[in-house]
Amino acid sequence: MDPFLDLIHLLRPRATLWAGIEGVGRWGVSFRKRDDLLFCWVQQGKCQLTRPHVAPVHLEPDDFVLVRTDTPFTLTSDPSVEPEDSETAVALTKDTGLRLGVGTDSPVTLRGGRFVFDTANEDLLTGMLPSLVHVAAGDTSSWRVRSLLKMNETESLEPGAGSEFIIARLMELILVEILRSETLRVNSDRSPDRKQEHSGLLAGLADPVTACALSAMHRDVSHGWTVSGLARLCGVSRSTFAARFRQIVGMGPIEYLLQWRIALARDELRRGTRSIGQIALDIGFQSSSAFSTAFTRAVGCSPKRFAIAARSECSGP
Hints:
This protein has helices at 3-11, 86-93, 122-126, 142-157, 163-189, 201-205, 208-219, 227-234, 238-249, 253-271, 276-282, 288-299, 303-314; strands spanning 13-17, 20-23, 28-31, 37-44, 47-50, 57-59, 64-68, 73-76, 84-85, 97-100, 108-117, 132-135.
């Protein structure tokens, strides 16, 4: 199994598009902390994306960014400008198309939107992703992202037979392309003297040792994996493997395995097609009681209560 595709299948991404942002002169628009996953494409002009306590990201024409709003961020022509709040501006104008600044100098046009996840694991899985993915216009994957987004926009404006299916697949491909470019970038940036800047599943897949372990755990999630067994499979010592996995992925290998098992269980419970006992055995627990204890510790409620709440949410108004 490919852990990357496992993640995408569990996310089931779909997207909503903004009408756009047009800025002239000196302007800025801020976005609140919402724990969403936003994307943005610079159609023309240049601007900066700023976040607290990190260097600004300079955006050029045809650049893409994927932003987790785990912290607030701002799109601006100049970081010294006091930005308008995006939610307040939309509420006042009743329009998702924002026009900012005064005059005609240095026009900037941005398109973008928000990914929505039809899954019980949105918080868990978006937490595996980097806070920011920047796909520069010169990136070899960028032209594919732009082509896919244009196809989605056309299909949304001119729907035909099977449009819902087509749009869903396009959104999945867009997210895969953006994230795949990040996997390749992390891999190309890694060197013995370079400080580890990224952690999570994408960083893990870019490292040959951790990628071997991740693939094995995803291929057979019910197996009784141990740190020693995974280390032997990857051809390194137990201590080296444990330290390397934690440094790159951000958690220990058995902690990751449990997190993934719980993610799969939440998804199955939300679907409601299998019993709790079947789910427990399929994801590697020897009994329903052991599964219930681990699930309750991780999620904060029993599998039964979670399933009832999830199905109630799905059948709500």
